[in-house]
Specification:
The protein has helices at residues 3-12, 36-41, 57-65, 78-90, 139-146, 162-174, 186-189, 201-208; strands at 18-20, 47-51, 70-75, 96-100, 115-121, 149-159, 178-183, 214-219. By secondary structure, it is an alpha/beta fold. It has one domain (3-219): Rossmann fold. The protein has an eight-stranded mixed beta sheet with strand order 1-4-3-2-5-6-8-7, with helices on both faces. Helix 5 (139-146) links the parallel strand 5 and strand 6 (149-159). It is globular and about 45 Å long.
């Protein structure tokens, strides 16, 4: 690991807007499950997650535009989270926090019905067939989301990967999810959409490479078949 990454890992440990899995290794320290509104944000506003948030560009922009909502950017890579968290501190964004955990442990950090919406922005598409269970829209992960998401809450995927997009559409249909919206080319179909056209670092690179950005939004059924 490079010196810069080590310095960032050290620094995020001092950030008041970042929670890390290592913070909760002591059994006397309670995880924030069920306490996000009251103890972490100090309000009753709805909670939105950005999974695989990377540098947190999407979560940052959503938090800037929606001060009446709470946002949590989640990723395991601390050196990436550092950038978004540092920016949020500089801008004094009180409605944004970051959580450095593995996403398959999400239900250890959020309680039932605690999350209003989930955004998944440009996650690793895991193109190898044998890795499909690692995709963040696989049944394994949808089952985890169902444990924390409100019944009317949405899962929203934004991706440049044709394979991940089609995989997600098939999973959603097979699981009897309720599809809210499907957009096969954001910048051709809805270029004026203020939310869907927020561009992350990776999205800008995808667009420069001529890739098409796709979006699907859906709600979960009562039971996910894993």
């Amino acid at each position: 690991m490079g010196t810069n990454k080590l310095q960032r890992f050290e620094e995020i440990g001092t950030f008041e807007n970042v929670f890390e899995l290592t913070d909760f290794q002591d059994e006397d320290v309670d995880k924030p499950k069920g306490r996000w509104q009251e103890d972490i944000f100090g309000n009753s506003n709805p909670i939105f997650l950005e999974l695989a948030c990377g540098k947190g560009a999407y979560a940052l922009e959503l938090a800037r535009r929606n001060p009446q909502k709470n946002f949590v950017g989640i990723d395991i890579k601390g050196a990436r989270i550092w950038k978004g968290a540092k920016r949020a501190l500089a801008e004094e964004l009180e409605n944004l926090r970051f959580l450095r955990i593995y996403i398959d442990h999400l239900d250890e950090y959020f309680g039932p019905d605690e999350v209003d919406d989930i955004w998944i922005t440009f996650p690793d598409p895991y193109p190898n067939f044998g890795d499909r269970s690692k995709r963040l829209t696989s049944p394994k992960f949808l089952d985890i989301y169902s444990r924390v998401l409100k019944s009317e809450g949405k899962v929203r995927l934004k991706t440049d990967s044709d394979e991940l997009f089609e995989f997600t559409r098939n999973v959603v249909e097979n699981q009897d999810c309720s599809i809210d919206e499907i957009i096969e080319n954001i910048y051709a179909e809805c270029p004026e959409d203020e939310i869907l056209t927020i561009k992350t670092f990776y999205e800008k690179r995808h667009l420069e490479a001529g890739k098409t950005i796709k979006f699907i939004s859906f709600s979960l059924p009562d039971q996910i078949l894993v």
